[in-house]
Amino acid sequence: MTPETRNTAAAAAHDYTDGDHAESEILKAARARGHDLGCPSVSTGAGAALRFLTAALQAKAVVEIGTGAGVSGLCLLAGMAPDGVLTSIDIEPEYQRSAKRTFAEAKIPPGKVRLIMGQALEVLPRLTDGGYDLVFFDATRTDYPRYHEHGVRLLRPGGVLAFDNVLGLGRVNEPGHRDQETTALRELAKLVREDDRLVSVLLPLGEGLLVAAKRLP
Ligand SMILES: C[S@@+](CC[C@H](N)C(=O)[O-])C[C@H]1O[C@@H](n2cnc3c(N)ncnc32)[C@H](O)[C@@H]1O
Known about the structure:
It is built from 8 helices and 7 strands. It is α/β, with parallel strands linked by helices. The chain has a single domain (3-214), classed as Vaccinia Virus protein VP39 (Rossmann fold, 3-Layer(aba) Sandwich). A 7-stranded mixed beta sheet has the order 3-2-1-4-5-7-6, with helices on both faces. The longest helix is centred in the N-terminal third of the chain and has 17 residues, at 3-19. S-adenosylmethionine is lined by residues 34, 39-42, 66-72, 89-92, 95, 119-120, 138-140, 143.
């Protein structure tokens, strides 16, 4: 196989795998609202993976950083245990208003979602150590390396960390790109790979979904 054929086959496989997930009208409407607000949502494939992870973990307590218009939140909730609670943090009130509309349209009872408005690095230290089954990051890429330690601290043993968009539009594996965001994403990948407390895998969904399970002590 030539490099060109391999690239074409990989792109086709990516488009197929990422697109092969039916979404409800409510999710599609939330995605459209996010787009109109200039706040991109997780890809359909990444959303499906989040739903899968919360279902596999039977997650009761999940933290999301980057509420946006509520697309990833709805995917996380779809897999969570019936008595589970999603804590979702965002710095933009307008986006959280849009997410509230998404959750209301999906008839999510208000007690199942705790929305916290604020800067992630100020809110994260206030959350309980070892209190969460899954922590999902989809906010400031340049802060991803700093999110890593918070995520590990918040997870219970056996819990899972997830970071969206870790390939930075394909720039991460192009050595010529040395901008702040790309550098931070490379640093995150290294931190996670070299962290003995974690077992990770990079899923080629959307712009790359990095997931890592926290080992039992
Ligand atoms: C890509 S959007 C999230 C999309 C959302 N996860 C979804 O799939 O619908 C990124 C979000 O992170 C929020 N954000 C960016 N930097 C932040 C920070 N430092 N603290 C908290 N939220 C932040 C933005 O306001 C935006 O809503």
